[in-house]
Every structure is written in structure tokens, then in C-alpha cells.
UniProtKB/TrEMBL annotation:
<feature type="region of interest" description="Disordered">
    <location>
        <begin position="49"/>
        <end position="87"/>
    </location>
</feature>
<keyword id="KW-0175">Coiled coil</keyword>
<dbReference type="GO" id="GO:0036503">
    <property type="term" value="P:ERAD pathway"/>
</dbReference>
<dbReference type="InterPro" id="IPR029071">
    <property type="entry name" value="Ubiquitin-like_domsf"/>
</dbReference>
<dbReference type="InterPro" id="IPR006577">
    <property type="entry name" value="UAS"/>
</dbReference>
<keyword id="KW-0812">Transmembrane</keyword>
<dbReference type="InterPro" id="IPR036249">
    <property type="entry name" value="Thioredoxin-like_sf"/>
</dbReference>
<dbReference type="InterPro" id="IPR050730">
    <property type="entry name" value="UBX_domain-protein"/>
</dbReference>
<feature type="region of interest" description="Disordered">
    <location>
        <begin position="283"/>
        <end position="349"/>
    </location>
</feature>
<protein>
    <submittedName>
        <fullName>Ubx domain-containing protein</fullName>
    </submittedName>
</protein>
<keyword id="KW-1133">Transmembrane helix</keyword>
<feature type="compositionally biased region" description="Low complexity">
    <location>
        <begin position="66"/>
        <end position="75"/>
    </location>
</feature>
<feature type="domain" description="UBX">
    <location>
        <begin position="371"/>
        <end position="465"/>
    </location>
</feature>
<keyword id="KW-0472">Membrane</keyword>
<dbReference type="GO" id="GO:0043130">
    <property type="term" value="F:ubiquitin binding"/>
</dbReference>
<dbReference type="GO" id="GO:0005783">
    <property type="term" value="C:endoplasmic reticulum"/>
</dbReference>
<dbReference type="Pfam" id="PF14555">
    <property type="entry name" value="UBA_4"/>
</dbReference>
Length: 479
């Protein structure tokens, strides 16, 4: 709105606002005054004390209702009493003469009001706690209103919303419910009769409960209820307003709207009748909104269920894949370990065979008849039942017996034994034990005990070669 389109009253308020706030931006000042419905005190307060401004969402709801209340007030209804027509700005010489005094008076009043508000503000050190206290005031007032009502009129009454007016608007909008606002004044004679006979009526209580109507009530002696009365343009008490969420024309979307007003004392039947009429007129739109909301909720729940099922399926698939991967890795590891074990076994077998060939190539020759030294004649019965007789020198050790038994399978098959080196890093283990048959004596491997020192081996002996059934093998020193 341009400053050229302002009437005399608006121009006067604009001049006062600029004088108080020292602003030269006319357009910004006009926009702020329009936002606060040309309420000079609230507009000035919003400049110097922005901490007292309402939550944006709740303020928007209040502005919606205030706008619709002005339109609803113009409609003719039997129970509505129109407020007196506001006086028109004076014209003529007297008006021109009185205009400067009017400006001075309004500026003085605005400044004094603003200064009083600033003086009553909490200190900066208590800003946060005070803000919390202010937010709790509306709930406290609602609880106090209910307690006072029940002390005087009993506990049977319509269910009062335990919160502030803007909170009630939010709840009604969110839940798609009718909001029934009740304002009363202790200065009106009809207040007590209205509270005692109407708000406690069982018929009205049941109707409100059955139709899930939200009821907010307040006494205009309290600041919030007084401001609500101004917003809803209440002129006669008790005052009632029916508010509902409506689809507006054009691109205005959904707005909380005053759909009916009841001013003055009213019987329960009258209120129920007005609520029924509002329900007939506006329930179709609200039912459609509920269906759309329910459809959105159902689609949202369906998406959530699908997402949950997908996540669970994905987790199950991932678990299966993880288990399969672990099984593959375990199988690969087992195969690798088996391969390494087989390779180690083969290498050990090759070294064992090499060592036995080494024994064959290094085994001392059997003493013949030309040998002049001591000779021991040993008769072996091998593990496979084969019998063989072999002569050993008397100074040979028991180790020579083990060498012969280990090398014999190759000795009997090979005539020419070529020299073979012992494998590196290999310790040979004998898987048998030589035993004297009678008396039974086990001759353990020894590289130091000579044959002529053992009575059961010298000068002749019969030995049995028994394969070991356990892992107690005999070690041989590296040659």
C-alpha cells in the first residue's frame, strides 16, 4: 500500500510511528503497521521489543481468524449485535485546528505506554527464564480458569482446552476439529447465569464430546482473553465464536475462519442448533480434508511399511550374503590350509625318502670273514614278517641297527647305491622299535651305546621290529 492511499487516521498513525521509531522508510513502516492491523502500540513494540512477538505460525493463525472475524461480523444473524459505527474523522476548520493537538496526545500516550512496557520487562539476565514463563502463562491461565469455574459451578461442564488461544487454533487446525471460543466478562450480569446453566448443561457437554469439538474459554480480565476479544471483535458478553479450517477461493489455500458468532446469553439448545448449522455447512469440506489427510497418512504408513519391509529384506539378504561370503572365505581358507598341509606332507615325505637313500649310500659295509675284529650276528624279524640276518661290528652302536632296518627295503632292491646328501633342515623320525624277544627288552635309539656293551645283543641276538602305534618317535641326530 502506498502512503498516498492512506486515509487521515492511517496517515496520523504513520506519522506517530515514524516520530517514535525515527524511521524514514515509509514503505517498511506502512507494511509493519498493516501487519499489526494499524495498532500503533504493537507496531512500536515489535521494533524495540521483538522478543515479545508471537511464534510465526501461531501469529499467522491469529491473523487468519482476525481477518475472517471482521468479515463474519458484517453478516446479519439474529443473535449478533452490531457494534456502534466508528466515528468518522472530523472535517472543517475545527478539525484542522485540533489535528496537531491530537497528534501530540497520541504520541504522548504511545510513548508512555511503550515506556511502561519497557519498565515492566524482565532483566536481560533473566531473558530465557522469563520467555519460558511467558510461554507457560497461557496454560496456567487456562488451568486457573478451569479451577475457578469448578469451584463456583461444579465439575460438570464442557471440557476446556488447557492451553492458550493460539495453541487451541493450532490443535484445531492439525486435528481438523471445530473450535468453539467462549469469552466472558465478570462485569456483565449474564455471565453467572450463562456459566451455571449453559456451560454446565449435560446436553451441551455430551454434544461437544460426541462431535469432538475443541472448547477454549477465557475471561477478558486476563490479557490473552482481552486480546482475543479484540481479534474476534467481541462487543457483547458472553461471546462465542465457531472457528473451522476452510478452503478459501483462488490461491489462498486453507485458513482458520470464523464461521459463526453468538453474542449475549444463549441457551444450550441455541448453541447446539448453531453448531449443527455450522456442521451442516462446513463439515463436508472438513470431512474431505480428513479423507485427504487419512489418505496421506495411509500412503505414508504404506510407504513406511514398504520401506521397513525393504530394509528387513535388505538386511536379510545382506546377512545371507555375509554368511555366504564367510562360508566361501572359510572354505577357501580351509582349502589353502589343506593345500599347504599336503604340500608340507609331500615335502616331508620327499625329504624322508631322500634321507633313507642317504642311509643306504652311507651304511657301513657288513664285516666279512676276513674281518679280525669282534662281530655281532643279529637275526631280524621285520614288521612285514620278513627275516634277515646281518653282521655288525662289535663297536657299532644301536643307531646302526636302526639305520639298517630303515634302509633295508631299498637295500634289497638296489645293487649300486650312489651317494645321496642328507636333506637340509630335516630331522628323521623312526617309526619302529627293535626289541629282544626273550627276555623282552626294547632297545631305544642310541648313537653312543655299542652293541658289545649290551648283553642281549652280544654276540648274537634275535630282534623283532615293531612298528610304533603312537607318536612317540625316536629322533636321530643330523649327520
Amino acid at each position: 500500500m502506498s502512503s498516498r492511499n492512506l486515509d487521515d487516521t492511517q496517515s496520523e498513525i504513520l506519522n506517530q510511528f515514524q516520530a517514535i521509531t525515527h524511521t524514514d522508510d515509509v514503505d517498511a513502516a506502512v507494511n509493519r503497521l498493516i501487519h499489526y492491523d494499524w495498532n500503533l502500540e504493537r507496531a512500536v513494540e515489535s521494533v524495540y521489543d521483538p522478543s515479545n512477538s508471537h511464534d510465526a505460525t501461531r501469529e499467522a493463525l491469529e491473523e487468519e481468524v482476525a481477518s475472517s472475524a471482521q468479515q463474519q461480523q458484517r453478516q446479519d444473524t439474529p443473535s449478533i449485535q452490531r457494534p456502534p459505527t466508528a466515528p468518522q474523522p472530523r472535517t472543517g476548520v475545527f478539525a484542522l485546528f485540533a489535528w496537531p493537538f491530537g497528534i501530540a496526545w497520541n504520541m504522548t500516550w504511545s510513548i508512555l505506554s511503550f515506556v511502561m512496557r519497557l519498565l515492566s520487562r524482565p532483566s536481560i539476565t533473566h531473558t530465557q527464564s522469563s520467555s519460558t514463563s511467558n510461554r507457560q502463562d497461557t496454560r496456567t491461565l487456562a488451568q486457573q480458569f478451569k479451577r475457578d469455574f469448578e469451584l463456583k459451578f461444579g465439575e460438570t461442564h464442557v471440557e476446556f482446552f488447557q492451553g492458550g488461544y493460539s495453541q487451541a487454533l493450532e490443535t484445531a487446525r492439525r486435528d481438523l476439529r471445530f473450535l468453539f471460543v467462549v469469552l466472558q466478562s465478570d462485569e456483565h450480569d449474564d455471565t453467572e447465569d450463562f456459566c451455571r446453566n449453559t456451560l454446565t448443561s449435560q446436553d451441551l457437554v455430551d454434544y461437544m464430546a460426541q462431535h469432538n469439538i475443541l472448547v477454549w474459554a477465557g475471561n477478558v480480565r486476563e490479557t490473552e482473553a482481552f486480546q482475543v476479544a479484540g481479534t474476534l471483535r467481541a462487543t457483547t458478553y458472553p461471546f462465542m465464536a465457531i472457528i473451522a479450517l476452510q478452503q478459501m477461493g483462488g490461491n489462498n489455500g486453507l485458513r482458520m475462519t470464523v464461521v459463526d458468532r453468538i453474542e449475549g446469553i444463549a441457551l444450550p439448545a441455541t448453541i447446539i442448533q448453531r453448531l449443527e448449522r455450522a456442521n451442516r455447512r462446513h463439515s463436508a469440506g472438513m470431512n474431505r480434508l480428513r479423507m485427504e489427510r487419512d489418505q496421506r497418512d495411509m500412503e505414508r504408513r504404506l510407504r513406511e511399511e514398504q520401506d521397513r519391509a525393504y530394509r528387513e529384506s535388505l538386511r536379510a539378504d545382506q546377512a545371507k550374503e555375509r554368511q555366504a561370503q564367510e562360508a566361501r572365505e572359510a572354505a577357501a581358507k580351509a582349502a589353502e590350509e589343506s593345500q599347504r598341509a599336503e604340500q608340507a606332507r609331500q615335502e616331508l615325505e620327499e625329504k624322508r625318502e631322500q634321507y633313507i637313500r642317504h642311509l643306504c649310500s652311507t651304511l657301513a659295509e657288513e664285516p666279512n670273514d676276513a674281518y679280525n675284529g669282534q662281530v655281532a650276528k643279529i637275526n631280524f624279524r621285520l614288521a612285514d614278517g620278513t627275516r634277515v640276518v646281518r653282521k655288525f661290528r662289535g663297536e657299532d652302536t644301536i643307531e646302526a641297527l636302526y639305520h639298517f632296518v630303515e634302509a633295508y627295503p631299498l637295500l634289497k632292491n638296489e645293487q649300486d647305491q650312489q651317494h645321496v646328501e642328507a636333506p637340509e633342515g630335516y630331522t628323521h623320525k623312526y617309526n619302529f622299535t627293535v626289541i629282544s624277544s626273550y627276555p623282552r627288552v626294547a632297545h631305544e635309539f642310541s648313537s653312543t651305546t655299542q652293541l658289545n656293551q649290551v648283553k642281549s645283543l652280544w654276540p648274537t641276538a634275535t630282534l623283532i621290529v615293531e612298528a610304533d602305534d603312537n607318536d612317540d618317535d625316536h629322533d636321530d641326530d643330523d649327520e
